[in-house]
Design brief:
The chain is an alpha+beta fold. Helix content is 32%, strand content 29%.
Length: 133
């Protein structure tokens, strides 16, 4: 079975079901939370409704997790793919702050391969709960 999902913006996600093949497995050197697909939903209310539907179907859901500029839930689909649903919560000021440093961050990352601190305010707010949890 080959399934295509319209991801918007001219993008398509393709999934294969191979019932007669051995289990695929995962890269054991990469944490499970790293390899995932994120999909945007229209609002936090829609995010919470999706969480309720998933949990009603017996699916374990993590979140919502407040990432300062968006909130997310995480779960595994029946084939073991980690999925994220995310709802934007950013203010125009937050987006402007990020836009002002995006190229500097990318440049620093490309040179050092260390996390730039230009937008550390986002993660500090996540950790302190000050981002509106």
């Amino acid at each position: 079975m080959h399934l295509f999902l319209d991801a918007g913006g001219g993008n398509i996600l393709a999934f294969f079901e191979l019932p007669n093949a051995p289990a695929m497995g995962r890269d054991q050197n990469t944490p499970a939370w790293v390899q995932h697909i994120a999909l945007k939903v229209a609002s936090v209310d829609e995010l919470l409704a999706a969480k309720a539907r998933l949990q009603a179907a017996g699916i374990d859901v993590i979140g919502p997790t407040n990432h300062t500029i968006f909130q997310s839930i995480y779960f595994f689909d029946p084939n073991g793919h980690r999925l994220e649903l995310a709802a934007d919560t950013a203010t125009p000021e937050q987006l402007q702050r990020l836009d002002a440093v995006k190229w500097d961050m990318l440049s620093e990352w490309s040179k050092t391969r260390r996390a730039p601190r230009h937008a550390a305010w986002m993660h500090e707010a996540e950790l302190s709960g000050a981002a509106g949890d």
